[in-house]
Design a protein that fits this description.
Blueprint: E1 5-11, H1 18-26, E2 33-40, E3 56-60, H2 65-75, E4 80-85, H3 94-104, E5 110-119, H4 125-129, E6 138-139, E7 146-149, H5 151-156, H6 167-178, E8 182-194, H7 203-226
Helix pairs in contact: 6-7
């Protein structure tokens, strides 16, 4: 029996890409999907650009990635959770691959795969030349690269809603500290789009946020060791 999955797409001003992201969810070979789109206070509501009547659409004041993902999880009704950023896309077999791996080992808290990055094709050649896109795959050990058991959030808590840190890094630190049973597969499960607006233009701010996240992860590991 296939375990149903709640798919949470977080959206913030990516109106040029959101339709492709949603289409990649609808094209999944996995038969039981609940689609939830969280509009995190975009300048123009998503409902102004596409039909939002055939999925759960939630619009909230802008609170950042962590808050948007938490909102989606709170509205999810299925035992497995998958996240997708509005500017990325999935291969058709993504949910079937990860859910099958998780079902084969029910003790596993989550299953993750590999990520292939690509430069968004509509960009001018000058913009493309400024973006470094490594040809090798990268690990999908990140919220958008995995399928997660919903009860993981009950065990280790929600994503941080502190916008001064990288919420996904802080949460993944909790996953590591909890020593969950994790499954890694070799398949590509996410195509991550590189474009002008998702590349950091403030390297100092990014470095500071990464440092704060790293400090939080070290603190979590120390606390876990002492217990």
């Amino acid at each position: 029996m296939t375990t149903p999955i709640s798919v949470i797409v977080t959206y913030y001003n990516e109106r040029h890409y959101i339709a492709e992201a949603i289409d990649s969810v609808r094209a999944q070979t996995h038969p039981a999907i609940e689609l939830i789109v969280v509009d995190d206070g975009s300048a123009e509501p998503l409902s102004d650009h596409i039909d939002v009547t055939d999925f759960t659409y939630i619009r909230q004041d802008n609170g950042g990635d962590g808050m948007a993902r938490n909102t989606g999880v709170r509205h999810a009704s299925h035992p497995l959770i998958a996240f997708l950023d509005a500017d990325d896309v999935w291969p058709r077999e993504r949910l079937m691959i990860l859910s099958s791996a998780q079902q084969a080992r029910p003790t596993a808290a989550l299953a993750y795969g590999q990520v292939k990055q690509f430069i968004s094709p509509e960009l001018p050649e000058k913009s493309k030349a400024l973006i470094h896109c490594p040809p090798e795959l990268k690990t999908g050990f990140m919220p958008t690269g995995m399928v997660i058991r919903r009860d993981c959030f009950e065990q280790i808590g929600w994503f941080s809603e502190n916008r001064e840190i990288h919420s996904h890094m802080e949460w993944m630190g909790k996953v590591r500290a909890a020593q969950f049973d994790l499954i890694a597969v070799d398949d590509v499960v996410l195509y991550r789009r590189l474009h002008d607006t998702n590349m950091s233009h403030n390297k100092v701010e990014k470095s500071q946020r990464l440092l704060r996240a790293a400090r939080g992860m070290i603190k979590q590991r120390r606390t876990s060791t002492e217990q």
